[in-house]
Amino acid sequence: MFQAKIYVTLRKSVLDPQGNVVRKSLFALGYDNVPEVRIGRYMVVDIEAADRDAAEKQVRDMCDKLLVNPVIEDYTFELVEV
What we know:
Number of strands: 3
Radius of gyration: 16 Å
Shape: elongated
Number of helices: 2
Structural class: alpha+beta
Order of helices and strands: EHEHE
């Protein structure tokens, strides 16, 4: 059994209006040293697989086919055996 921790963020070339609102709010609270905020998603997916390579392939397939919009988003993931 493996657990994938998947991080999805907007590509740098895509505007992040939600992140911009958070950055402005932080500035209003006195945090004027935060030049940028990017908002993303975090997912935890448990996977039953024969080995690490098979689990990694499944995670990539899931991200490429459903979990991530490759036009505007990037992703990274961590895989741990549980």
